[in-house]
Amino acid sequence: MNEHEFRKAYNAYADALFRHCYFRLYDRERSKDLVQDAFMKAWGYIAKGREVENMRAFLYRILHNLIVDEFRKKKTVSLDALKERGVDFIAHEKLNQNDLSELKNIMSFFSELPVKYREVATMRYIDDLTPKEIAEITGESENNISVRINRATAQLRNLMKIS
Amino acid sequence: MNDLNEIKNITKKITLSSREKESAKANILNFIRLHPVSKPDTSRLLSKWSFFSLFNLNSKPMPAFLGILLVLASSGGISFAAEGALPGDLLYPVKVGINEEVRAAVSFSAEAKANWDARRLERRLEEAEELAHKKEFSAEVRSKIEENFEAHAERVERRIADFESKGEVQSAADLSSNFETSLSAHEKILFKIDGEEVSKFLPKIRAKKGSASLLRIKMESRVSEEPKPEAKEAAEGKMKVSENKIEEVKSFIENVRAKLGAEATVDAEAKLTEAQKVWTDGKIKFDAGEYGEAFVLFQRAHRIAQEAKLLIEAKSEFNIDFKTQEKEQGEGKNSENKEKENGRFKEEKANIDINNNANSNVEINSKSEVNADDEKIKKRDSGNINTRLDLGL
């Protein structure tokens, strides 16, 4: 992996990683920080001459760990606190009213899921990762992940009242 | 929306702005260029990274001159070489005035900025230690370091006050605890290294440490005053963080022991045992629902563990022995002697562990000479550059 390839990886994954982080932390600034950190760490690993098979999963994994640590350090941001602060994702995206309200709905439903369910639901439905990839990222068995996804899905459907 | 699979279509509208994206990319590329792919034995890469940036992340554009300075500084490895500079060296102004300022500008969040301020403070203390060790800690050097030290310490205090006023009590407590530990550990180290001018610097550190302690205690009581669910979360978070810290220091000590022998790590191990005990006490309080007290104990365990690590690092670097220190210092207060405070912003062991999240530094032990275009750049040891690249947030 050289700088050129790494740059390609950045172009390909930065947005998705940011999005992933954002939907877990609800903090734009912090998300930007963590995404940068993740790339740095990834490079640090690579610069030691180590091979990375799946760059995307590798980056997600590093980011996931950073997010988990973030949760450990501070109390989780509740959606109420978020509302108080004013949801800050509107920075540059030109979102119309409809999009905005849909996003808020999604965030609201997701925030009602228990942490572990929210984790996999985000990865499955927002990041569009496969159970295998999610397992790789979280370091858990594919089986556990699949089961959890099913349960999270059921709960989510229930919350959203989707048949 | 009718189907869960539609979620991604909506959420994918959340992205980085092109400016944000380019900004971060520039930072990352800068970083990459400073860390080319190298042989494993010449670089030791550690957990957390930060970076240099050419770009300002707010909407206001970066002043042109700063941009130019950065380009100059980053090219030719000058900013890289500056990282090893000490007060009196030609490149020291680059280290403090450019590198550190750039890093300050780069961080997005208040936490990252606060952490960096605390880290800068530590760098001043580390510089003092290195110079004192080399017996180069002159009066001139002392006044320079003191000035910077005071400035950085004040910034950290302001950060703590900021967090407090925003109600971010946990962040305030974290920062104040780490602040205290840094000061405490480095004070001990400098005391041990000793020197005429050093002994003039020490009172200032002690004074700051004293106020840091008070601040920390105040922040801890703020956490205790939080409503029960928040206090519980804070305690729980601290429980995990301190548990991780103890594990981290444990591995670190094992590594050191493997290299330097059991004798070298005896004290550190004793401290770690103490940290574990305090942690266990914290757990008991936590289980009993006394979250405020639990939080205090977990923080103390964290401090003890971190201090153990800082001291053992100093020990191997400067070859000093802390065993007799406590008797010599005789600081009187029981709690101070027993309570070994710790800081969070410090180096970690060599092997990269991507699951680790403490702040850390890159240590590059390079035997080759600095390739400087400017011949006037003074090398500390000819042919041997021991550069600590600070990449912690």
Give structural notes.
The complex is a heterodimer of chains A (163) and B (393). With 163 residues, chain A is mainly alpha-helical. Chain A is built from eight helices and no strands. In chain A, helix 1 runs antiparallel to helix 2 and helix 2 packs across helix 3. The model of chain A has no long low-confidence stretch (mean pLDDT 84). In chain B, strands 1-2 form a two-stranded antiparallel ribbon. Chain B starts with 6 loop residues before the first helix and ends with a strand. The radius of gyration of chain B is 22 Å and the shape is globular. Chains A and B meet through helix 1, helix 2, helix 3, helix 5 and helix 8 of A and helix 1, helix 2, helix 6, helix 8 and helix 10 of B.
Largest sheet of chain A: none
Largest sheet of chain B: 2 strands, antiparallel
Most residues in contact: chain pair: A-B, 60 and 64 residues
Going across the major beta sheet of chain B, what is the strand order? 1-2
Given the structure, what is the number of helices of chain B? 14
Please bin the fraction of helical residues of chain A. Answer: over 70%
Structural class of chain A: mainly alpha
The oligomeric status of these chains comes to: heterodimer
Give the ordered list of helices and strands of chain B: HHHHHHHHHHHHHHEE
Helix content of chain B: 55-70%
Provide the gyration radius of chain B in Å.
Answer: 22 Å
* Straight-line distance between termini of chain A: 46 Å
